[in-house]
Structures are given as structure tokens and as C-alpha cells.
Design brief:
single chain; about 200 residues; about 0% strand
Length: about 200
Amino acid sequence: MSKFLIPTIAGLGVAGVGGGIYLAHKNFENPVSEKKTVRTKLQKAKFKIPSKEDNQHWTSIKTAYNNVRTHADKVFSTSSSEVGEEDLKRLCEEALEKDENDTSYDKAKRWCVVTTTISSYLKEWGMNALPTSDSNNEKQSEWTKLSGEYASSNSKIAGVDSLSSEAWKNLRSECKKLGDKKNYDDDFDTSFESSKIWCIDK
């Protein structure tokens, strides 16, 4: 090989390496931004996306979906006939890949996440619901304290303007109703906010 050719090749090698380092540095400075979709927004909100193979979930959620399939504000598209599991999976897959600000977000939150109750969802956010069993008086002091604050509060549970004479038991009962609500129920969001105020162990 010519002695004049060797330095030229070496020089090209250094330039190539240098170019690679420059590009890597530029990519580090400007990382590819994550596509913000309905899926990523739900995951950031601590909902879990079911796999297509989770037959138990899809069988259960299909029943709930078909119960309201004629309500345009609740389902992806109204239907006079029952929607099958495969159809619902397809509808969810389409909704999940849409932009995070798409109007399908609220519907995807109902039908395209692993079904959860408010009690369970509170745990996802590091909060524990107070016990609501009628069989004992566990945490009575906490319930009494909360019920004492209820009358003067402007953030009451929807439909509960006041508590009965046994206020703490009344509040415990209302919190049990809230805790059992599922993410596809109409008032899931407002119930979650009320639960954070009146139903958690602080």
C-alpha cells in the first residue's frame, strides 16, 4: 500500500469517529421526544393497560360496555347489537394510539384499562382508604374527626349535604359506596376526589 494512501485512510477514520461523536452528542442534547398518546396519558395517571390475552378482563368489560352501548357519551360508537370482545379490543387499540388530548381519552379510561375500584386506585397514588366494615369500630377516632369537619366544608360528597346523628358511621357508609365505584362508572372522577378528602387514613 502506498505510504501516501495510509495517512489519508487514517485521516478519514478519525473524521468518521469524530462525526459519530458529534452526532451522538447532538442526539443527547435533543433526545427524541416520547409520543404523547392516550395510552401514555393513562399510564401516567397510574392506570394499567390490559393485554389482548387477558380474556377474563375483556369478557367482564364487554358486559359492562354492552350495558351502555346506546349511550353516545359513554361508548366509542353506539350500537344496536352487542359488541364482541375482538371489536372492543380493536376500538381500544385505536383509541390508545390517538393523541393524548383526543376526546376518546375519557372513554378509553372506562373501557381500555384494567378495571379498578376507587379503593384500589387510591393505593396506586400512595393513599390508603379508611376501613369501612360495619362489623367493628376500627379507626373510629379518625372517622369522628373527619365527620366533625364535614358540616362546615364546601367540598362535600355529591348528594350528601349533611350527615345523620351518628355522623361518623354515616360518613363511613358513604365512603364505602365511593370505594366500590369502578373506573367505568359515570362519577368515578368526582368520587375519587371526594375519597381523597373524606375517606383516607391521613
